[in-house]
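This follows on from our talk about sequence and fold. Can you supply me with one protein entry, sequence and fold together? Could you add the entry underneath, on a fresh line?
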Amino acid sequence: MKIISSILVALCSVACADVSNQVEEAVTTLTVESKNQQPITQWGVATHNRPDWNPAIWAIAKFPNSLDAIYGELGTTMLRIGIDFNTYDKEAPREHLRDGILAATSRGANWYGVPWSPPSHMKTINHENGLVNGEKNWLKPGYEDEVAAWLVDVIKWLEKEGVPLPVAISAQNEPDWWPDFYAGCLYTAEQTPNVVVELRKALDAAGYTGIKVLSNDGATQDGGSLPPGNPNRGTINMLGLRPGGAFETNEAYRNALDIIGTHTYDLHNNFYVNNPGSLQAFHDAVKRSGKEVWMTEWETRHEHTFNDWDVITEVMTHFNRDISSMRFSGWMHWKMWEGFAYNEGSNDPGKCVHRIRPTDYLVYNAVDVGKNPKYLEVRISANTEKKIKLSVHVDNKNGPKIGELTIPRTALQNRGFRTIKIPLKSVRGTHDIYLKFSSSFAHLEASLNWFKFAGGDQIEAENFDDKTTSQPWSSAVIECFMVEARCKLVHDDGENIWRRPLFYIFKKIWNAAPANGETFVRLIRSSDDSFQGESKASIPESYRQDLCAFVHPDAMTVVVINRKTEGNVVNLTGLTGTTATLFRYEKEDAGTVNMDLSMVGEFSIKNGMIEGLSLPGESFNLIITNRGDLNEK
């Protein structure tokens, strides 16, 4: 924060209520509506069978400070934890599961479990992965009761080991996604209701009547890789939520299903921009079902997060929209911890072309390659092992290929670069150089820092003259920093802990608006479109904007993001209480670790309004009132 900001803070508590009398620019009215929407029942984090997302590091033993922060300080109420397929017949995975759950429950959090794959023998291909040698791997027909029996057996074992019972259990993570590189399993639209019914029956028979059944955690709402009209496409179809579907016609299934779970990665995809009716259909189906709905997995995928401020705005706008437009009662962030020292600088000097996808190519005009260089040196990062091919062409994109190499795995998500050498055919003189990337797997990524022909000058990758990309956000130029690491909330090297701004943001919200069923969502209307952000096509009853509010008996919490570079003045109405405290991050604060939001000042609330509230350009603002009751005098 600038020094002048500190001076203003001191003056603000006495003068800010009258700022509107001095403001000449247009004022935007933000109105918190009086109607309570859904209650908030869970704030959570999602992980595999350990709370560290990395089997090579044992967080429970090495990083107790991180666990205290995530499961205690943050306001977390729920751990979403993966049940490994090997828990069917192996002791070690059960012990890992036990220890991972106890790390959360001993600090006050609850848990629910979900497998990424059932045991391999229950699948059409005897393998844990969702795609094997190009063939999709499904749950075997008629094995729904076997899945249920296995999960209940795991719960019994955990109970004997002193693990508290889960709040809920789900039969499958992302049953509409078929990964080739990690465990997964496809379910048909007929199998999904059946496994919900069988799971309910098995739980009741074991005396676990209080454990809720959460639907298979869908990867999409109505998008994904399957074509439109496919009965297995997305949560709405898999769960039979359309009119006349299984939810409406199958009473046993309807009674067995307690919670609808889904992920919201795809809400940023172009599918929903071009097909807003699909999102509307999911929204309406969920509302019609009357069931509790949880968002059980999301993290920013770096499409728009090229700096620290982008990370904050991307995550919090997504959070606001999920809560406001999709009516989730539970919301769980995926991957918020990293077990290494946070690096505020870059891990390679200069800039890189980041998020290079297969079919992308970069063009460098009039490059002097020298006299018959033997190899091309390339400083590169790739997130997979030998699945992205880099080919070097001269003169045009389909011109002579002078070199080619399948890139070895270097690190995940731009976490580290290495220099590789690509042998070259005979070439000399000056040419336009085309670097082309290809793979049969469209989701893979590479990042390029620099390249040079042997004996020649180093060419910075950012200086390309032209590009063709598979996605609008592909091949972006950014500093060569640890992009994924900046999206995590906590970093820990075993001695020191680094809390990122997102940690403090969620901590403020989740503690002021606790997930105890007494906190309700309130929608916010804007008098203009100043706070619509990068909204996709809106749907009725959906408030897809950079605003969100919560009301609790003790406080009202209002989230307002100002993305614009210029400041804004707002009248904030519909507030409860008599005073409010404003907390803020500005863009310049976004990259700072271990710094809480700045307390800007305390404001008087008159007739439910704070008048003339100044919001700096590119700022995250959190307003917390002193009471949540509506009828205070």
